[in-house]
Amino acid sequence: NDGIDEIVFGSKSKKLYAFTYTSLLFEYDAESFLIGSPAIGNIDSDSELEIVVGGFSGSNKKLYAVNHDGTDVTNFPLDIGEKIRKGAALADFNGNDLDDIVFGTEDDHVYLILDDGTIAPGFPFQGDNAFRTAPVIIEHNDTKFIAIGSEEGTLYGIYPDGTVNFEYHTDYPITTSPSIYNKDGYFYIVFGNSNG
User: Fold this and answer.
1) How far apart are CA 43 and CA 55, in angstroms?
2) How far apart are CA 114 and CA 85, in angstroms?
3) What is the C-alpha to C-alpha distance for residues 57 and 55, in angstroms, rounded to an integer?
């Protein structure tokens, strides 16, 4: 909150790094591969932002939430017990002005974790294969839903109660996170698969 942007990234060295333009702010040891992009938002009641990233090691399958000073957010890390390959998406699903966390796993699940570290009712959502792309959160007609693609080639739209809004099937693994394109008041979900 000093008006100057920082850079945050994870690594296969099992460390999360935060830099300013001139110096290292902190190095957080997650004891797990961090290969997904970190998400940054506000998941607790202080004014600073928090960093969320998932672990991908076989022995340490946790969801991490780290404060701006490199300390753990209260109730984190969470032992999910499933590898998290890609990044998370953050949005306020329960209306308390704090971000909740959405991510997919190698065990065919999509999770919605509330800001207090609990799993939202209706989750985890069971998909048809592993989720190896980050989700996006879409708000349409005052309703949020999750869009995420699976290795089976299915793009899912999932409501906040864990029910399916839609499924769009392709014949090849989905390899990119969905993007949203808005034209003339209509939104389109754009993504790619391994068929090119």
Assistant:
1) 18
2) 20
3) 6
Element (H, E) at 152: none
pLDDT digits (tens, 9 = 90+) for 83-141: 999 999 999 999 999 999 999 999 999 999 999 999 999 999 999 999 999 999 999 88
- Looking at every residue in the chain, the average pLDDT score rounds to 95
R_g of the chain computed on alpha carbons: 17
Cβ contact 28:15 at 8 Å? yes
Check: CB of residue 136 under 8 Å from CB of residue 178. Answer: yes
Tokens of residue 136, six digits:
């996006």
Asked if 135 contacts 177 with a C-beta cutoff of 8 angstroms, the reply is yes
The whole-angstrom separation of Cα 114 and Cα 92 is 9
Q: Is the dihedral of CA 153, 157, 163, 165 positive or negative?
A: negative
State the Cα angle at 134 between 194 and 19, rounded to 5°. Answer: 120
Comparison of pLDDT for 71 and 1, the residue scoring more: 71
Q: Are 86 and 68 in contact (CB under 8 A)?
A: no
For residue 102, list its beta bridge partners.
Answer: 89, 112
Residues 157-177: tens digit of each pLDDT: 999 999 999 999 999 999 999
Cβ pair 61, 32 in contact under 8 A: yes
Instruction: Provide the residue type at 123 as one letter.
Output: F
Does the global pTM surpass 0.90? Answer: yes
